[in-house]
Structures are given as structure tokens and as C-alpha cells.
Specification:
about 160 residues; alpha+beta; Thiol Ester Dehydrase, Chain A; six-stranded antiparallel sheet
Length: about 160
């Protein structure tokens, strides 16, 4: 872990910096009370509570809230891997979701593709771009898989 990654991890886990950053970059994260509960080089866990702000008329969590939490679990890993590595651009270019069970409890999204992101970024030359599909699993407190999101990120190393 380089010093920039250590700084990023400390800031994203600090409630004040997290709140301030999300207020200007992703305000729906605050509205839905999404929280980052774990972050390391290989995986990230994000929780999404079940309450009136995240609920749809069918008494389950709105799919957009789940998509936001899943994207955050992958995007934070990408930002963590990018810290201190130079200039890159990144963009979501694809999203696929599978729903298995009704989401009517707090859902934890886990992405374990941090090492794959690190490896991809390490081999990109200036001007090159590549995509990576990351998987975020959403589980309820009973550890049952509620949803699975496949989020495809595009990375381009700037010269």
C-alpha cells in the first residue's frame, strides 16, 4: 500500500470526509445512508439499510438504491487502486443485475475484485484503455444472496 492509498483509505473511512465528499459527488449515497464498512486492497463492503428512503412501493429496497450501493463497492476499490498511480480516467460502461430474493432487510454489498483492478492498472500504458467487469454480491443478514451486480468499468491511462 502506497502513502496515497493509505490517505485515501483513511479519508473514505472517516465519517466527516466521507459525508463531505459524497455531498458534492454522490448525494444519493447520503440520502440512502449507504456506508462503507470494510476496505482493503482486495475487497470492499458497503451496507444499504432498509427504511423509508430506500424502499419502493412493494416493501423492498428500490433497485436504484441497490445499484448505487453495488457501484460504490466497486468504484471505491477502483479509486483505492488508482491512488498514487498517476492520471487515469474511469467510467461505468455497463451494468447487469440479477435479483434472487426480496430485499427487505439491510443489504451488504461485497466486491472482491480489488486485485484484478490493481493488475489491470499496472499493465496499462499511456493512451491505452481497457475494461473490467467487477461483481458485487448483495447479501442479507442471514448471508443469503439477494442480488448480484456486474459493473463494467473502463479505464484509460492519460499521458
Amino acid at each position: 500500500m502506497n502513502p496515497a492509498q493509505e490517505k485515501f483509505k483513511n479519508q473514505i473511512r472517516n465519517p466527516f470526509y466521507f459525508w463531505w465528499g459524497m455531498l458534492f459527488k454522490l448525494p444519493t449515497v447520503l440520502f440512502w445512508r449507504i456506508r462503507i464498512t470494510h476496505l482493503d486492497e482486495s475487497n470492499c463492503q458497503v451496507t444499504l439499510p432498509y427504511f423509508w428512503r430506500s424502499q419502493n412501493p412493494f416493501k423492498s429496497i428500490y433497485f436504484a438504491a441497490m445499484s448505487g450501493a453495488a457501484e460504490l463497492s466497486t468504484g471505491v476499490l477502483c479509486q483505492y487502486a488508482l491512488a498514487g498511480k498517476g492520471k487515469f480516467s474511469m467510467l461505468v460502461v455497463g451494468l447487469k443485475a440479477e435479483f434472487f430474493k426480496k430485499a427487505n432487510q439491510k443489504i451488504t454489498f461485497t466486491c472482491q475484485d480489488g486485485l484484478a483492478v490493481r493488475d489491470l492498472l499496472g499493465r496499462l500504458e499511456p493512451g491505452e484503455s481497457e475494461t473490467l467487469t467487477m461483481v458485487a454480491f448483495g447479501t442479507n443478514p442471514e448471508k443469503e444472496t439477494v442480488a448480484k451486480f456486474y459493473i463494467t468499468w473502463s479505464f484509460k491511462r492519460k499521458s
